[in-house]
Structure formats: C-alpha cells, structure tokens
Write a structure and sequence with these properties.
mainly alpha, 22 helices, two-stranded antiparallel ribbon, single chain
Length: 486
Amino acid sequence: MSTPSSQQILYGLDDRPPIGKAIVLALQHVLTMFGSTVAVPLMLGPAMGMNTSQIAVLISSVMLCSGVATLIQSTFGSRLPIIQGVSFSFLAAFFMIIAAIHPEGDETVAAGAAMPYIAGAVMIGAVLEMIVGFSGAMGYIRKVLSPVVVGPVIMLIGLALYEAGAPIASSHWPIAILTIFLIALFSFVLSRNRMIFRMFPMLLAILGSVSVCGLLTWVGVFGPEHPARPNLEAFHEAEWIRLTSVVFPWGLPKFDMGFIVAVMAGYLASMIESFGDYHACKQMAGAGDPTAKEISRGIGCEGIGCALTGVFGGFSSTSYSENVGLIGLTKVGSRFVVQIGAVILILLGLFGKFGALAAAIPTPVVGGLYCAMFGLISAVGIRQFAKADLSSDRNLFVGGFALFMGISVQHYFKNGGVEAAQATFPGGVSDVISAIGQTGMAVAAILGIALDNFIPGTKAERGIEEVDREDCNLDSEKLVSVSGDA
C-alpha cells in the first residue's frame, strides 16, 4: 500500500530512470556532498604537515572511499538511496591523534605519519560497528543512548573544533568573511526562490570565493606567497589516473589502544546519526519507515565501508543528511541513481587531477567554510537534545553535566592531566585514560550514559522510541540474502 508521500515521488526505491537522466540526478548527489567531503581532508591534511600534492592524494582517497561505501550501502546494506561520506563525528578524535603524533613545532615527524594510526583505529572500530549492526544490537543500544546523551555528544563535535575556525580564517579575513557571507546568502536568502541555491549553497559559495581569489591573483593583488592565492602547482604534478597510491597510500595500519578508544566515541555518534537518516531517507522516498533489519544491515555495512577506508587511505564514513534532504527536494528516491553516484565517486577518486584541483582551494576559503559549518554541527546537537523533555530538571542536569565535563575534563588533560595519569596508572591503562580524557565526546558519552541510566526517568521523558525486540534480530538466512527485501 502506498503512503501519502509515495504519491508525490517521481521515482521510488526500485525505479530506474532513463540512464541519461539518472546520470544527471546522480551528479546532483555528488555535487551536494562535495563541499563537506572535501572540507575534512583540507583541514586534517595541513595539520599532519602534508603539502599540496599529498593533500590531493588524500582528497582522492576520500572520494574513492565514499564511492565504495555508498555502493555497498545502497546495494547490500539498508538498500536505501543514501550517500556515504566522511563523518564529522570523528574529527575531535582525529585531531587528538594528530596532536599526539605531530607535536606542535616538531618538524622531524614525517608528513602524514598520523594516517596509519587513524586507519588502525578506524578499522578496529569498524569491526565493532559491524558486530552492532549484524547482531541486531542497534535497537538495544538505542535504549541506553537517549537524546539526553546524544545531544551533548554531538554538540561537543562542533565545539571541540573551535581551533579550526577563526585561526584558519585569519590567514586572510576578507576572503574568509566573503565565504561566510556567500554561504549564508545562498543557503538562507536566495534559496527561498531559486532551486539551484537550495541544492548547492556550499559548492556555489566555494566557487564564488575561489573565483574572487583567482581574479585578484590574476590582476596582481595577491602575490606568489599570499594565503588566498590558489595553488595549482600540484595539479600539474598529479597523475591523471592513480595507479600507485590506491591501496594503503600512507602505509600499513598501526594500532594504539588509546587512539582506538577515542575513535569509539565517534562511532557511537555516527551510528545514532545514521539511525535517524535511515528513517528520513525511506520516508522521503515514499516507502514509510525502515524495518529494524534494514537498519541493522545498514549499520553493519557502514562498518564494512569504514574498514575499507583504512585500506584505501581515507577516513571513516557515515550517511550524509544533506543528500537525504536532496531526495525530498527532487522527489527522486531511486537507489539506482545513488548507485550511479557511487560509481562517479569511485572514478573521481581514481582521477588524480581532480584531487589536486580540490586541494588548490585557498586557506581562507577553507577557514570561512569551517566557521559556517562547525557551529551548525553544535546546533544539530541542540536539536537532538530538544527531543527529550527539557522541562525536566533530571534531563537538564544529565545533559548539562555531560556537556560541561566533556569540555572541562578535555581542558584538564591537555594541561597536565596526561602527565598525572602517567604518574598514577600503568602504561597501557594511562594511555587509555588519557585518550578518553582528551576526547570531549568520549567523556560526555561515558558520563551521560552512566547518569541517564542510573537516575530514574521515563522513556517519554528521555525521548526514547519504542523498539520491537523481535524485529531487532537478524537470523542467518537473512544475512546470507542481504540483497533481498526485508
């Protein structure tokens, strides 16, 4: 039986638009996720001491990973038209790893030396996500991870990134401010009347700012060393087709228990985010709510996608909410379209010149992008927290305490707490404690879960949805036939 929304859908989940139209629709998905996907390597690459050529490889690797993860998700996982891309939930943990491997001012560490440790932590965490997904445990985890906990954790994802905002934008404030202005103009003013601004505000803002940088460089206002000058040297050096740096481009994975624990908090936030995206995606595609088995397969296959990012040299991946919104705008919910988009992403990832072109984006443009984006991440956490009863003093205490301690404990460990832990506990234990303490999300998640499940509160008060116990389980026959309907 069709849902009311299904009567408005142009192409449903199982529909296959004509190939020409499908390619254009798939390109829309790729363009929509482009800004967010490129932003992460542009931020993490310089922090690891990478030059433009290395950042170009990193961007290409991220695109390849996104394409592979999307193809797995849309074909074998939830089988929903969901684009997979770099997850912001892990950024705080990644920055902690980078800070540990690349101490500030130490130029003796090789560029990109943190990437094998990031790959190792992501791959171990991916195994946990696969277990959570394919075992059907997601329904039970939802019972202990209420919005009272998830909200503060997501808030801290954005708040922990304050050092990547104004300090980077200050490399040239006029261009950074222009970028912020264009993002706001396209996203919230012009988008009211023009579809193109509604679908591609971030991309158009980047193109606009880069165009201004290119023009000012061409007329001689920006000299050779100016931070707002586009750097196209790597474009000429990059391979047309990547043949030598596809598998383990940064070396074999390395494993550190402290880093692994820090990344686990990102996985918790990522799984909760995907849980919501599956519901929004299937509803917008006119097919009602996803079954628990679809959700379980989706989470499990996200784990597979994350494991493969360690192989192909990218970062962890998750579902992209902005692409879910695109389905609502275009009324096209075809998984076939997203599968074509996945193939396009894979081709972009193997096309070296593409990564080099993206790496040429000037630093102040990236800084303006961060200022606009990271506050929005924190606001999403506020929206998640608001799903709980905020008139409840219990909820305000649990959420507020978790948020405050996530910031405060992190500050303590960055200012002497690590040395105190090393003096008090054995080596391995102190490493784990230090990793957790330096990751605000992990602190907030641990304290929030403990208090939220210790202090009495009704499910309605905590904002928890009921989950059918029987529907959460995946039997072996269904796992073998993951491509069939749930």
